[in-house]
Structures are given as structure tokens and as C-alpha cells.
Write a structure and sequence with these properties.
Elements: H1 2-19, E1 22-25, E2 42-43, E3 53-56, E4 61-65, E5 75-80, E6 88-89, H2 91-103, E7 106-112, H3 119-135, E8 147-152, H4 154-164, E9 186-190, E10 216-221, H5 228-239, E11 244-249, H6 268-281
Parallel strand pairs: 5-7, 5-8, 8-9, 9-10, 10-11
Antiparallel strand pairs: 1-4, 2-3, 3-6, 4-7
Length: about 280
């Protein structure tokens, strides 16, 4: 019995080690615009609902989930968890999404952008993340023309801003990675927020869509109090003739990730997979 337990522990330990992912700190020196010293991500312990949340990030990271060799499409997606810019729902809207992407042959990069309340810093982090992945594309077996970004709630705001404001210089270059483009090639916005901050709940003024704005997939439920964000963004993209696919389902609320038991959470992944397959088929 004792020998069996030892073997079991060894096997479990080996499995855990095999599941560990590389964690890359995206700023080699001082984090631009950050007033605090670099520190470990601070876990939010105020809620007991089975979600790993970070309440403070001062040293942004990418957790790297590379697609397996058997089904690798060469695509990569940066994942921006939500949390109202106050925290990050790291597993529900981060690592669990990376696992789903891997099943579809897509490498996932979970971005811990700066929180709390560091919107400008979050955009810097997203731009830097795109550049790092594009600069290391050959190393990670990624097509540099197939790098997307997706987000949930406030993470969708980070993703949209990175996709629309890619020509905005938000920080001074720090190394060779900053010589490449930070424009994502495609964008997915799941239950987005903060897009309707203009007059009479129109598109947020600084989100000026251009011809270079990448194609977008948008999903939200009608009973989500923030659903107008999806409507105004989809309308603005349509008006600018940017390819957009919008899904608005009746029920689901907000903040469900892709965990079972919620009708919206059980609906959007299949729709997103179909959209991604079509997009990647048409992208070489």
C-alpha cells in the first residue's frame, strides 16, 4: 500500500510538472508608467467562489500555452481576463480559455496586465505582448500574421483598445521586440464593457476605428446590463466596413467565462470556433 501511494504521488507530481507553463515577464527593466516596484501578483482573497483573481499586478506577465504539434494552426491569441480594471479573473477568463484554444490548435498567451485602475498601463502591456509574440513567432512556431487578441468584460476593453489604437505610441522602445508591429490580426470580445462612453451612450470617443482595425467577433447576452457596448461597437465596425460578427443571445448575464451551467457560456465557444476556423482558412 505504501509503495502504491509513493508511485501515485510520483505520477501526480509528474503530471503537475508537465502542465506547468512558462511565465514570461514582459518588461525587462522598469515597467513604463508604473509607480510601484515590481512585485508578485497579489491574490484577491475577498471572494470564495472558486475563481483565482489577482487584485494587484505591478510586473505584467504572459503565461505561455503553446499548441501541440499535431494540430497546430500557427495561430496565437493573447487572452485578457476581466475584472473591471480592479482585478483579473485569471483562471475563469484566462487559463481555462487557453486550454480551449489549445484544443483548437491555437497557442494561448494569458496576459496579466496592470491592475487596479491602470487603464493606460494595461494598453501598454497589451501592445508589448503583441510585439513580444510577433518577435518570437519562429521560436514558438507561430505565424506572425495570425496573432489575435481576446478579452472578457474589461479585458475586452483592453483588447479593443489594442486593436484600434495600435498606431498610438504609448511607451518608449525597450528592446528589439518594440521594432515590430503591435497590431493584432483579429479580435474576439466576450461580454465587453466600456465601449459606449460617448454622448447618449454612443461609441467611446477615443475608439476611432480606421481601415486598419482588424476583424472582430463579438458575443454578449441581452440581459447583460453592459450589452450596449457590443451594439455600438458592431455598428461602428459595420459603418467603417470592418468585418464583424455579432451574437446577442437572450440570457446569460455577465462574467460567465466558459464554465458549464450558463446558457451563454455554453454557446459562445462553438460560435467562436466556427468564426476562427473560417478566418484562419482565409489567412495564410
Amino acid at each position: 500500500m505504501k509503495r502504491f501511494l509513493i508511485i501515485l504521488l510520483v505520477l501526480v507530481s509528474a503530471k503537475c510538472l508537465s502542465q506547468q507553463k512558462e511565465l514570461l515577464h514582459i518588461w525587462p527593466g522598469k515597467v513604463p508608467g508604473e509607480l510601484k516596484d515590481k512585485g508578485k501578483h497579489v491574490v484577491d482573497t475577498t471572494r470564495k467562489d472558486g475563481v483565482l483573481r489577482y487584485a494587484e499586478v505591478t510586473n505584467p506577465t504572459l503565461e505561455i500555452w503553446l499548441a501541440g504539434s499535431k494540430n497546430n494552426t500557427g495561430a496565437a491569441v493573447i487572452i485578457c481576463p476581466g475584472g473591471g480594471y480592479a482585478r483579473l479573473a485569471y483562471d475563469k477568463e484566462g487559463t481555462e480559455i487557453a486550454e480551449w484554444l489549445n484544443r483548437n490548435g491555437i497557442s494561448g498567451f494569458v496576459l496579466s496586465y496592470r491592475v487596479p485602475n491602470k487603464k493606460a498601463g494595461a494598453l501598454m502591456d497589451a501592445q508589448r505582448a503583441v510585439r513580444i509574440i510577433r518577435n518570437n513567432a519562429s521560436k514558438w512556431n507561430i505565424n506572425p500574421a495570425r496573432i489575435g487578441i481576446m478579452g472578457f468584460s474589461a479585458g475586452s476593453d483592453v483588447s479593443a483598445r489594442a486593436s484600434i489604437l495600435y498606431s498610438l505610441k504609448t511607451y518608449d522602445p525597450v528592446d528589439a521586440a518594440d521594432t515590430v508591429s503591435c497590431r493584432p490580426d483579429f479580435t474576439m470580445l466576450i461580454y465587453p464593457a466600456y465601449f459606449d462612453q460617448g454622448p447618449n451612450r454612443t461609441l467611446t470617443p477615443d475608439l476611432k476605428i480606421s481601415a486598419g482595425t482588424p476583424p472582430m467577433f463579438i458575443f454578449q447576452s441581452a440581459d447583460d446590463g453592459l450589452a450596449n457596448s457590443s451594439l455600438v461597437m458592431a455598428g461602428a465596425l459595420r459603418d467603417a466596413k470592418i468585418p464583424v460578427e455579432l451574437h446577442l443571445v437572450p440570457k446569460g448575464g455577465h462574467g460567465y467565462g466558459m464554465r458549464p451551467g450558463n446558457p451563454a457560456a455554453e454557446t459562445w465557444p462553438a460560435l467562436a470556433e466556427k468564426w476562427l476556423n473560417t478566418l484562419l482558412t482565409n489567412t495564410k
